[in-house]
Amino acid sequence: MSFAEQVKNEIAHCKPENAACRYAELAALLCMGGSLMLGSRGHVGIEFSTSNNAVARKALKMWMESFAVRPEVRVRQGLRLRKKNYYILRVPPSFASTKTLQQLSLFPKDKEFSAIDLKNPACQRAFLRGAFMGGGSVNQPKGDYHLELLTGNESFAQKLLKIMCRFHLPAKMTDRKGDYLVYIKEGNGVSAFLQLIGADQAYMKFESVRIVKEMRNNVNRVVNCETANLQKTVDAAIRQRRDIEKLQASGLYLRLTPKLQEAAELRMSHPEASMSELATLSGLTKSGLAHRFRKISDMAKQIEE
């Protein structure tokens, strides 16, 4: 199973925070992986297909929780050896389906998605999660850092880019043979995106592999480290970065004292460094620096509560 499929399987089990976030996630998922069907009297339906069983179940669940119109569900089996099955959700054109698609800003075309709440950061995260489930991919952490969202809808791609930039992600957009690609090529950006959409396990795996890989590029500093100590350093660095990114995403980062912000910026600038190395860089004692990171961790735990 590819790393991208692992991410999709994980986020397919994320529960939207509320009905508004469910609408946002479903709208992005259908916009990315669905196609509109025109019927008589100007009525419109939609057909969504995916090869990921968990994503198909998530799409069906969100639809059933939101609307009275019931979709048809079919499975198209792969024709050749190792070909994946495709799971198809189809809502035939009708007066009711047209009204439903209007509620999701999918018809008529609305580049601002004004019918759903995209001012709420939680709904913005849900929107990005739906887009990734519908048509996202990310490289294995051992390879080159690359995450992308591919769509044939230019205004939708621009909306994704706008939201990603609101979260300070280093995203860019380009066209590819008539399609539009929103992508991230930096390790920090890929890592932040995974955490943003709720892929915590994938985030931890990505960060663990990435930090070890970067450490191996500095062999002179780690050659005498025992494996257990190296992993301990990696785990501590991941936890600290995760706490800092949680505070940044929630807006609580600005409430940190200057001393805590100094420690946070030092960790983000040196993701692979040990506590001893950070202490040397900061001029603080190792215990003093550890005390600051404990305070940062305590604030991050308040978000979870």
Task: Summarize the structure in short.
This protein has helices spanning 3-11, 19-33, 53-66, 95-103, 121-135, 154-166, 187-196, 200-216, 219-222, 227-250, 258-269, 275-282, 286-304, and strands at residues 34-38, 44-50, 72-76, 86-94, 136-138, 147-151, 172-176, 179-184.
What does this structure look like?
With 305 residues, this protein is α+β, with helices and mostly antiparallel strands. The chain is 55% helix and 15% strand. The strands form two sheets. The protein has a four-stranded antiparallel β-sheet with strand order 1-2-4-3. The longest helix is centred in the last third of the chain and has 24 residues, at 227-250. The radius of gyration is 22 Å and the shape is elongated. The model has no long low-confidence stretch (mean pLDDT 91).
The level 1 CATH classification of the largest domain is Alpha Beta
Mean pLDDT: 91
Helix content: 55-70%
Over the alpha carbons, how many angstroms does the gyration radius reach? 22 Å
List descriptors:
13 helices; Endonuclease I-creI; 4-stranded antiparallel beta sheet; alpha+beta; 305 residues
Map the helices and strands.
Elements: H1 3-11, H2 19-33, E1 34-38, E2 44-50, H3 53-66, E3 72-76, E4 86-94, H4 95-103, H5 121-135, E5 136-138, E6 147-151, H6 154-166, E7 172-176, E8 179-184, H7 187-196, H8 200-216, H9 219-222, H10 227-250, H11 258-269, H12 275-282, H13 286-304
Antiparallel strand pairs: 1-2, 2-4, 3-4, 5-6, 6-8, 7-8
Helix pairs in contact: 2-3, 2-5, 7-8, 8-10, 10-13, 11-13, 12-13
